[in-house]
């Protein structure tokens, strides 16, 4: 059957995967979280500055 062949081949492919170590996962997660915080802060600053600039332009 096609389904059993698919499952068998999928299982064989999963055996070939080199899974990352716990330390790799933790360090990559820290990089992602720090990047997320940095980008969020930068976008918040741009948003705040744009809001102030638009408010200044409208108040004239």
Textual characterization of the structure:
- This protein is mostly helical and 60 residues long.
- Helix content is 88%, strand content 0%.
- It is built from two helices and no strands.
- The chain is elongated and about 75 Å long.
- The relative contact order is 0.06.
Head-to-tail CA distance between termini: 75 Å
Q: Class by helix and strand content?
A: mainly alpha
Q: What count of helical segments does DSSP give?
A: 2
* Strand-residue proportion: under 5%
Q: Got a strand count? A: 0
Uncertain regions: pLDDT < 50 for 5+ in a row? none
Share of helix, binned:
over 70%
- On the 0 to 100 scale, the average pLDDT is 95
Please describe the biggest sheet, giving its number of strands, its sense, and whether it closes into a barrel.
none
* Principal-axes shape call: elongated
Rg for CA atoms: 24 Å
SSE topology string: HH
Helix and strand arrangement:
Elements: H1 2-16, H2 22-59
Short description:
The chain is mostly helical. The protein contains two helices and no strands.
């Amino acid at each position: 059957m096609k389904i059993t062949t698919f499952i068998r081949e999928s299982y064989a492919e999963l055996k070939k995967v080199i899974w990352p170590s716990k330390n790799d996962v933790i360090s990559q997660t820290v990089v992602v979280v720090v990047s997320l915080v940095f980008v969020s802060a930068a976008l918040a600053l741009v948003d705040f500055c744009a809001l102030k600039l638009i408010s200044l332009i409208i108040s004239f």
